[in-house]
Amino acid sequence: MRAAVDRNPPEQVSLTIKVVPRDEDRAPIRIAQHVADNLERAGATVDIEPTTGEQLLRDVLINFDYQLYIARHPGHDDPDYLYTLLGSRFGEEAGWQNPFGYSSAAADELLERQRVVDGEERAETFAEFHRTVLIDAPLATVAYPDEPRATRTDRFSDWASPSLEYPLGYLSLEYEETEPDDDRAEGVLYIGINDRRPTRNLNPFAVEFRDRGVVTGLIYDPLGRRIGGSIEPWLAESWEWGGTENRPRATVRLREGLTWHDGEPITADDVAFTYRFVEDTTMEPDEPPVVPSPRFRTQSTLVDSIDVVDDHEVEVQFVGARRSIAERAFAIQIVPEHVWEEQTGMTSLAGFDIDHVTEALVWENPEPVGSGPFRYADSTSDESLTFERNDEHFLHAEGSLSGGVAEYADRPEYEGIQFEFVPSDASAVEMLQGGQLDATAYGIAPEEVPAASRASEISVENEPTSSHYHVGFNTRNAPLSNPQFRYAIARLVDRRHVHRSVFERYATPSYSPIASLRYVPEEFRWAPDDAGSHDLSFVGHDDEEEPGTVDAERARELFRDAGYRYSEDDELLVQQ
């Protein structure tokens, strides 16, 4: 009798979805409401928990304190970024290193293989990877948003070549002097931002404060930048390859006369320090704990060792990877050793060291010293951030530049940038129309596009992006540790409905975390007419009366296949 009385009845499955609030980004909470509605129709109870962007990234990427989240990945330029995003060995690391805790020997083997093969064989490897991962569903990709970018053309032009999604977009602008304006200083580019974090923190390694890293990418230069379709020498004057095709070695030569913003010379020691630092910010490789930088982790995993040859030359030994992949390691932003070596100790609070947190990861870096084409000038927390042109940068040096870098000679043409925090897209459009801004660093919301397009002073250009919105699952704990349970939730997302209702068609729906369709097998490509016939497609209705509404019986069948059962009231019950 006691055994019978003490046995707890099964409870209804309860889930919490974390998102940023509507005023930071309107898309995640709308997607979350869509997912929550369909989960509730399938018998679960769901709470949506808004939190600031900084706190969301801290909860998801550092503390793993979540069940589900919906957010925007900062973007990628090569499918190799999946090596750390979904590799099993990174499941306990901070940052965009497998925040899902996903573990799969089959996926790991394929991620290793794609680094050493090329061409059609690499495409076939990713096709097999998709078949493994998309059904396991550690995340459910929803869409790649377009960015309707609003700009003025009275003082600056050539806005989209390349996009402001990348630092080079700021160097490409053509500047035309105009009559003095009381609202805008001559020669200053005024950019609206919808994110306060850059005004508070300029640490290039602080993952909860960095999304795409464009702002810090203007302060800190890498050895190489992606120009067009390839990575070309930037701080490096050149690199020469040796070793074998699948275990390459590179001798990297720095440009002559490089200096940091504080006047100190840039040397090979700074380069070697940076690469060792991102691998372990404690700079104590022989003693635990090892604390890697959560940013640039995909690139740092490509480097096996780095040795200083002389003041201007280093030799880099890579792990097993083809040269075309290994050269991505040159994109790490180089930092000055004389500044950052002081931040390698463990963080202390009231005299106690905090495990696996170094000063380097929490330092605000209030007055950054970099080598980039712009230097820090001033900031007001939550309001503005000002950069001034670095005339000592190699782009302004006498002599010719070669390759794709040559087109950026004597750039930028203007004196500085002022980033202004703008609380809403409607305010940004008003400030653009009134002349207080030259452009927005981000795409304005689709609902503001008509007003911006009607303003004669404003030009709106739609730009695709390399980042994606997705539903992330914490696979470490039940019920989300069950891949069939995650797969069932992924089937509750109607990408066609989200495309229309959330993004107003300013997006490209997708099932895949790789934007390049040549790596996505035909059966996993999103198609607007698949109408539920696809292994990953939405299990629901798509008619005018119930757009985006799940078919409750089909959804319940998916959860039954995952091993779950229902109460008499169609409540999805926790497994006993």
Our measurement of the CA-to-CA distance between the termini, rounded to an integer number of angstroms, reads 20 Å
CATH topology of the domain at 148-219 and 364-462: D-Maltodextrin-Binding Protein, domain 2
Derived from helix and strand composition plus strand pairing, the structural class reads alpha+beta
Helix content: 25-40%
CATH superfamily of the domain at 148-219 and 364-462: Periplasmic binding protein-like II
Helical stretch tally: 19
Number of strands: 22
Approximate shape:
globular
Please characterize this protein's 3D structure.
The protein has 576 residues and is α+β, with helices and mostly antiparallel strands. Among the domains are: 148-219 and 364-462, D-Maltodextrin-Binding Protein, domain 2, CATH 3.40.190.10; 232-343, Dipeptide-binding Protein, Domain 1 (Dipeptide-binding Protein, domain 1). Helix content is 25%, strand content 22%. The chain has 19 helices and 22 strands. Strands 1, 2, 3, 4, 20, 21 and 22 form a 7-stranded mixed sheet that branches. Helix 5 (105-114) runs antiparallel to helix 6 (119-136) and helix 17 (483-490) packs antiparallel against helix 19. The longest helix is centred in the N-terminal third of the chain and has 18 residues, at 119-136. The radius of gyration is 25 Å and the shape is globular. It starts with a helix and ends in a 15-residue tail after the last helix.
